[in-house]
Design goal:
With 194 residues, this protein is mostly helical. The protein has a single domain, classed as Vanadium-containing Chloroperoxidase, domain 2 (Orthogonal Bundle), CATH 1.10.606. It is 77% helix and 0% strand. Helix 2 packs across helix 7, helix 3 runs antiparallel to helix 4 and helix 4 runs antiparallel to helix 6. The N and C termini lie far apart (73 Å).
């Protein structure tokens, strides 16, 4: 019996092959490989953390982004990937050629998409509109590049985007709660001193 899940998995594979057969070309291959490389180990997002933390005015935002990326890495790459253990498309689909070095580890969910969308959510909560648009555009391009280069399925990047956003939202909720507790303790301390 074929289930809806089986159908979605087959569609995922068909899309990856269609990208290879219909979209790949020399110039775009180089652009997509470069975008994919930018997301390796969250490099572009860690550089953003460093840039934010280097300026006193943005230090708290940079720290929040760093915490979001750390939580996202643990949830996405350490926990979920090892539970699901989905093979990479290039290991599962005959005839699929990758155009970057083969990454290690499992395919689902995409760590590139998770870190990108966690970072974009941080931008949404802390930066101006133009920066938010740039962050979501870059996160989307990096995520899409992973399908283009043949190392992820579309479902992997969708799940990664969702998990990254949820991890970042959880960190922001926790940070807000901590700020309220600290403020309450501070107010209580000032009242006791008076």
């Amino acid at each position: 019996m074929v289930t809806i899940f089986d159908g979605l998995l087959r569609l995922d594979g068909d899309i990856v092959l269609a990208v290879q057969e219909r979209l790949r070309c020399g110039a775009l291959d180089r652009v997509m490989a470069a975008l994919s490389l930018m997301g390796n180990a969250g490099a572009v997002w860690l550089l953003l953390c460093a840039a934010l933390m280097s300026q006193k005015r943005y230090r708290r935002r940079g720290l929040l982004l760093l915490v979001c990326l750390a939580v996202c890495f643990i949830v996405n790459n350490v926990v979920i990937k090892n539970i699901v253990a989905r093979p990479r498309p290039f290991d599962a689909i005959d005839g699929l050629r990758i155009i970057v070095s083969a990454p290690f580890g499992h395919s689902f969910p995409s760590g590139h998409a998770a870190s990108g969308f966690a970072s974009a959510y941080c931008a949404l909560k802390t930066l101006r509109r133009r920066a938010v648009a740039c962050a979501y555009a870059l996160a989307s391009l990096i995520a899409l590049s992973r399908v283009y280069v043949g190392v992820h399925y579309p479902g992997d990047i969708i799940a990664g985007a969702v998990f990254g956003t949820l991890c970042a939202a959880a960190v922001f909720c926790a940070a807000a709660r901590v700020r309220r507790i600290v403020a309450s303790i501070s107010r209580a301390g000032r009242s006791a001193a008076e």
